[in-house]
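INTERNAL AUDIT FORM
Audit reference: QA-55
Scope: verify that the stored structure record matches its stored sequence.
Auditor: D.O.
Record contents follow.
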Amino acid sequence: MTKFKARITVTLKAGVLDPQGKAIESALGGLGFSGVDAVRQGKVFDVTLHAATSADAETTLKSMCEKLLANTVIENYAITVQG
């Protein structure tokens, strides 16, 4: 078994309202940061796991996303695996 490190980035799908992103956008304007058109917030998970291959690790990570880490109805996820 090989140890793999992965980063999973979860973001809201286009068209899904993001009230937290809007609040951050407004706060940035209030702090004097001009030119910010839009802010979308998301989540990042750093996962270390053991698997036989990188493909096996990615399969396991996809299953984690589908079952727990992302609400696939309203969220997208991206996985980056490092050996």
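Auditor finding: record pair retrieved intact. Residues 29 and 62 are 37 Å apart (CA to CA).
Action required: none
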